[in-house]
Input
Amino acid sequence: MAAPRNMVVAQSGGPSPVINNTLRGIIETARDLPEIGTVYGARHGIEGVLKEELLDLTAQSAEEVALLRYTPAAGSIGTCRYKLKEGQDEDFDRVIEVFKAHNVGYFVYIGGNDSMDTANKIAQLAQSRGLDLVGIGGPKTIDNDVGDSEFKLIDHTPGYGSTAKYWMHNVQYANEENGGSCPADPVLVLQAMGRRIGFIPAAARLADPNREMPLQIYLAESPCSLEQMTDNINDQLKRDGRCIVVVSEGFDVGSLGEVRDSFGHVSFSASQMTVAQKIVNHLNSVGLAAKGAARANVAGTDQRHSMGYASTVDLEESYHAGEMACRLAAGNESGYMSTILRNEGPIYSVRYDKVPLSEVANSERTFPKEWITENGYDVTDEFVRYAMPLVGEGMLSLPMVGGRQRMTRFEKIYADQKLSSYVPQADRDSK
Output
């Protein structure tokens, strides 16, 4: 048998409550695979590869690795929004150089569509350079926008179920407050993440599958004018005396003073104005069909790191997605992403498979039009049937010490740096 080769695993893009459990699936699976030697975690994604900052994950205690199940976000090894673009030849050369220096034969990138593009480029580059490197993708995104709109490449991405659960519960809580305080605050506008795709705001319907709340949901995929939205809300006020509005951060209300990341995506939480505040400002300026004022609640990055809302289904599936990615790597199946596919039948179950990175790289799923109701501000029962199994039944029980949650804390055991220091090319070009 050939000598084992080392693995580098990295994370990219926005975090999720379950991203570390995919990492855990990779680390724990690699322990039993003779093809894989040391597993390194690149500190802050591909930037960690470029800077040769490789955390030894094999040397970490089994207890700390196990605690990744309960550790949200990406603090364990970090993430980034650094993209390897055409023309950054020095960066691509550096990646290969680092992998050669550390006997790396496997690279697993956990992330969304842009991350799959990076994994695909590195796998192709390695092959063209004659380097025996396997490039694998591990799916992750709370937006659920990786893959195709027919759900044949992937049914849903790890992270979405937990963020959907967050919104299911928070809309329930918001409804309790709004029901009690509506004489003064008849309209509550809640803003959800999701950029241009509506899976996250759509999850608000899971809080009220029987449609008993005065709830309106506005997706980026079903735009309307502020005037039309005001009419819709006032009609709801005339019927019920109150209205809860859930709106996508990407809903078109005009300029927000947008800030963009290196991928070209709008960072709505960093922009000068929010969609929710623009809606509230408009509603209060034109007046409501009930006394009182509209209020806004803009959830921030907590919707992608609130571990208390993590779906147990999401945790299980994220682990097995990582396990599958590791097994694909050990089997030398380069150029694939591990995937989750839903089995047919009335009882929810999934299977784990693979799809070519070339098919998911830079892909962007759209929210099915048939899942948007005719009035444009709600989603159908078909969506509810799709999403409800993903949030799970119970709540996660978290390990606590002294009243505080116990999270993974890796020892700072890094591989010896064998190369000269390096500044990523885009960082130099931006100065």
